[in-house]
TrEMBL record:
The UniProt record lists the keyword Disulfide bond: no
Chain ranges of the Cortactin-binding protein-2 N-terminal domain: 73-209
Region spans: Disordered: 190-209
PANTHER family, sorted: FILAMIN A-INTERACTING PROTEIN 1-LIKE, FILAMIN/GPBP-INTERACTING PROTEIN
Protein name: Cortactin-binding protein-2 N-terminal domain-containing protein
Keywords from the named record: Coiled coil
Keyword Ubl conjugation among UniProt keywords: no
Xref: InterPro entries: Cortactin-Actin_Reg, Cortactin-binding_p2_N
Pfam families: CortBP2
């Protein structure tokens, strides 16, 4: 009499030999991966990854040592040359930044800032030189804040009007003083003429006698 295990292994072996004679469940059992094989594969992958990491770190250390050796081998002239190259690159970068800043400013703003109309290249050059010289930065945009600028103009006009009124009051006071003096002179002249007429009449009377 066959055992149950033999009866189960028999069809399994038959399925392994010919998949057409297998049922769906037997095919699923055959296609299911072996857990032991999976564990072995995972261990192998972990080992390969760990080995690769060690190799990469070793290579990076070797590169760092080689670069440090090359750095130590550089002479003073080489270091000065590299420093001059770096300085030139920084200056070129600053010039490019200043040119880009100057080109971003509107032509109308440049004309308003410098107070005259010229080709845009000239104004861009002036603004670029100002940026490179670390001059006073761009002032408030009068075109972006018209109301505030209008308030400033009104305030300035009020101050000018006040000063003009003060000047007019001084002129009026001086003119009034001059009129008083003229009136006084006129009065004196009138009195003098009257006295002169009296004196003349007295002389005529004396002559007639």
């Amino acid at each position: 009499m066959r055992s149950r295990s033999n009866s189960i292994e028999g069809p399994a072996k038959t399925c392994k030999g010919n998949l057409h004679h297998c049922t769906k469940s037997e095919k699923a059992d055959l296609l299911e991966p072996d857990p032991g094989y999976i564990r072995k594969g995972k261990k192998h992958r972990d080992y390969v990854a760990e080995t690769d990491t060690i190799l990469r770190s070793h290579k990076s250390e070797m590169k760092a040592e080689a670069s440090s050796k090359r750095g130590n081998d550089l002479s003073r002239d080489d270091l000065l040359f590299l420093l001059s190259v770096l300085e030139g690159e920084l200056q070129a970068r600053d010039e490019v930044i200043s040119v880009l800043k100057a080109e971003k400013i509107d032509l109308a703003l440049l004309e308003a800032h410098y107070g005259f109309v010229t080709p845009k290249r000239v104004l861009d050059g002036l603004q670029r030189d100002a940026i490179q010289a670390n001059a006073q930065q761009w002032q408030e945009d009068i075109y972006e804040k018209p109301m505030s600028e209008l308030d400033k103009v009104i305030e300035k006009h009020k101050e000018t009007h006040k000063r003009m009124l003060e000047q007019l009051l001084l002129v009026e006071k001086s003119q009034r003083q001059t009129l008083y003096e003229l009136e006084d002179e006129k009065q004196k002249h009138t009195e003098y003429m009257e006295k002169s007429d009296e004196f003349t009449s007295l002389l005529e009377q004396e002559r007639e006698r």
